[in-house]
Amino acid sequence: MIGINKIRIGLSASSPSPYGPNILPNGSPISGTTGWTAFNSTLSETAGVLRSTGSTDGAQGFRSDLLAVDAGVHRLTFNFSERNVTGNTFLYVGTTPFGIEVSFQNLGTTTGPYQYDLTLDGTDIYVAFASAGTATTGQFIGFSSIGLRKRL
């Protein structure tokens, strides 16, 4: 009988991560709402999920405080944990609140884990999440495990 050993190529449990620490001060794990600002909504945190609940009809969401970043490749990771909104949900990464100068992604209606590699030039940025303008009062979006880490 001939056996074949499977070899896993990549990082082992003892290998260092190719990314530095999380730049988001309250991103992973999320504890409370410090470091995040609501837009047309109220923010709450339960069991590590940051939830934005619309306080008015129309687009609603939240953004990070302004983040100082170094130039280079950064990996943005997050879990789109929950949604109860009419329409799609969006990711904004920009030099202005809800700006799209760096990246704009339509997350649609699919919850789950996401990751994006961003090439940054060292200009301070915001990370924001928002629902479409069709959301109504009381509808919500929720995110957890939000990380922004520079590639080493």
Structure notes:
It is built from no helices and ten strands. With 152 residues, the chain is mainly beta. It has a single domain (36-150), classed as Sandwich (Jelly Rolls). The strands form two sheets. The chain has a five-stranded antiparallel sheet, with no helix packed on it. A five-stranded antiparallel sheet has the order 2-3-10-5-8, with no helix packed on it. It is globular, with a radius of gyration of 17 Å.
SSE inventory with pairings:
Layout: E1 36-39, E2 41-46, E3 49-54, E4 61-64, E5 71-83, E6 89-94, E7 103-108, E8 112-121, E9 126-131, E10 140-150
Antiparallel strand pairs: 1-4, 2-3, 3-10, 4-9, 5-8, 5-10, 6-7, 6-9
CATH architecture assignment name: Sandwich
How is the quaternary structure best described? Answer: single chain
| Class inferred from helices and paired strands | mainly beta
Report the portion of residues in β strands: over 45%
Terminal CA distance reads: 45 Å
Structural key phrases:
152 residues; mainly beta; Jelly Rolls; 5-stranded antiparallel sheet; globular; disordered N terminus
